[in-house]
Amino acid sequence: MRLLRQRSQSSNAQIVDNDDFSFLFYYSVIMGKTMEDFKKKLKKEGFKHVYEWTDSPGTKYPAHAHNGKVSFYVTKGSMTMNLEGKKVTIIAGERMDVPVGMTHSATVGSQGCTFIVGEEIRDDS
């Protein structure tokens, strides 16, 4: 299993082997990028439905899984994901791809969270 961190302004990806994680996690540099840049990138990657979403502080998402690929860029605030028992906090400037079928839940941080969602299957998140 692998943990992948990648800077968006570089084509170099640093791959770190980690037996605790089975998802892809990207670090993106947001400075100089707009919401539209991230939306275009997700659409270019083949995500059929791309949109911006904002949650209030403390919002909770119960355990669930997706039938298709789901990816998001956090642009403001943070969210803590619980991926099959492993907690990871995603902050502004980071992207996460949640694997198809992986059970996960989430709690929005104290500042709320704004993110751009890419769905392979519309309304799958």
How would you summarize this macromolecular structure in one to three sentences?
The chain is mainly beta and 125 residues long. It has one helix at 35-44; strands at residues 2-6, 13-17, 24-27, 49-55, 60-64, 70-83, 86-91, 94-98, 104-119. The longest helix has 10 residues, at 35-44.
Layout of strands and helices, then pairs:
Layout: E1 2-6, E2 13-17, E3 24-27, H1 35-44, E4 49-55, E5 60-64, E6 70-83, E7 86-91, E8 94-98, E9 104-119
CATH architectural designation? Sandwich
Q: Tell me the number of structural domains.
A: 1
User: At the third CATH level, what is the topology name?
Assistant: Jelly Rolls
Strand content: over 45%
CATH superfamily: Jelly Rolls
Overall mean pLDDT: 76
Figure out the total of helices. Answer: 1
Overall 3D form: globular
Gap between N and C termini, in Å?
24 Å
What is the tally of beta strands?
9
Estimated structural class: mainly beta
Largest sheet: 7 strands, antiparallel
Q: What is the level 1 CATH name?
A: Mainly Beta
Q: Name the helix and strand elements from N-terminus to C-terminus, one letter apiece.
A: EEEHEEEEEE
Radius of gyration using CA atoms only: 14 Å
Low-confidence stretches: 1-31
- What is the percent of helical residues? under 10%
